[in-house]
Amino acid sequence: MPDVTFFAIRPAAAIANLAPENIMVHLDQPRPSLDHILNRRHKMLIGGAWVDARDGGLIDVEDPATGEIIAHAAAGESADIDAAVKAARRAFEGPWSRLAPMQRTALMLKLADILEAHSEEFAHIETFDVGQPLAISRPSTLGAPNTLRYFAGWASKLTGETMTPLVPGNWHAYTLREPVGVVGLIVPWNAPYTSTLNKLGALLAAGCTVVIKPAEQTPLATVRMGEFIQQAGFPDGVVNIVTGYGHTAGDALVRHPDVDKISFTGSTETGKLVLKTAAETMKRVTLELGGKSPIVILPDADLDKAIEAAALGIYRNSGQICVAGSRLFAHRDVFDRVVDGVAAYADRMKVGPGLEPGVEIGPLVSRVQMDRVVRLIGEGRSDGARVVTGGDRIGDKGYFVRPTVLVDTTPQMSVRREEIFGPVLCAASFADNDLEAIARDANDTSFGLAATIWTRDISAAHKLAKMIKAGSIKINSREFPEQSMPFGGLKQSGIGRERGREGVEEYTELKSVIVGL
Ligand code: NAD
What we know:
38% of the residues lie in helices and 21% in strands. It is of the alpha/beta class. α10 (303-315) links the parallel β13 (293-297) and β14 (325-331). It binds nicotinamide-adenine-dinucleotide. Nicotinamide-adenine-dinucleotide binds at residues 186-190, 195, 213, 215-216, 245-247, 250-251, 254, 265-267, 270, 273-274, 288-291, 322, 419, 421, 449, 489, 494.
């Protein structure tokens, strides 16, 4: 495997650096039983009780490697959302607000330990539900409890400030930082376990309560997490889980007048809809949206590393990663070597069902997603792009698309403009080291989520980091989630930040208090 070393299992707590290549996972662990997950009808967690949708609706949950139905989730609708919001409000105003910050920390640490003990189970759930190969789901689920541990520490470190008013007189002026209240979390399907924990950790540390609405395609890990949230001892109603479709349950959550904030991760298209709907009740909103992130390779770069990073940056999780480096810009002196290197890497990668040993690229999450990716590749072809490798679906069972490299693309083509969210790299060259021209190419997109720069010229690297409009920049490193650093999008890639102190503060409000002494 190119990016994960498999030889020993280490407790996640002992892992200092969570870059996927630094997490070691044992390959030969016994497969955990999923009898309680597969072929079951799953309920929703509302106010501490496991309930069916009020109107009895169900969602088919598919294994994208086979297209077969593997479980059913409740199809919650607005009445279920209303019950969950009421439970979250009761918990927020009741037991949760009475806990001291250190008690919240203790509960979060306990939950992290429980989740860590079940990380192999969660890895398998994600592999069944999302299609992720175990090579991806294992390090992700093993590392994810550290997200909770990181945020647990913030519960006791949120503070206001004291100020000196401009008006003459004797004053005591200060700010209070308070939890925003009841939060609605809306999560996409590409990494449900880790993206839910990212948000959950921050909002629990801030003292909020929550209604989680997982993506309809991938509800299983979140529902299972609910059992462990109860086991850890969180008061009823602090965390509620309503599975359901976006246009019903998701929309009802965004409209609900007693939800104080929506934290949404998903497509830019849906994000715009959420923003408009949330405006009606003036909710606070954080939006983590799509991307079309550039990888810039200058001629002096360490090409072996840059090529491997470019390939993994777009093919990991079958390209279904918001920060996937989908537009590659390489200097013309190294362009052919880079393109051939990435194409050769793509051809070596084993594509198949995520449970099969050695598989590095799994299926896309659904037929809809596969059809979209294949359609966009077709559009690229008819617009004049040349397929260096890949370009088609594999077989007729499951939703597999061959890792693809396209060249001769122009900025006007849909493959260069739209977020494909599949294993498709568009490569283009630039003629000289004119940093302004390179930045113009990189910035020629409506998105601004992430960017990667490869060069040994430290000054060029930092200049480009300033010039490229993206919320997160990696220099001589592959993109990986770093909890301590704020993460979010510029332009149409989103509003607000997750992770780091800023990520917790997104779930708070500031209140000003002035005392005349
Ligand atoms: P999506 O926008 O279709 O769905 C995301 C979530 O929104 C799902 O839970 C869905 O049920 C819900 N939803 C759909 N319609 C809704 C509505 N009208 N009101 C409220 N909720 C609604 O996105 P997706 O296809 O599930 O996920 C892929 C997208 O997510 C990509 O664009 C990707 O870039 C983005 N993403 C962004 C980040 C980030 O941090 N920036 C991370 C992961 C994924």
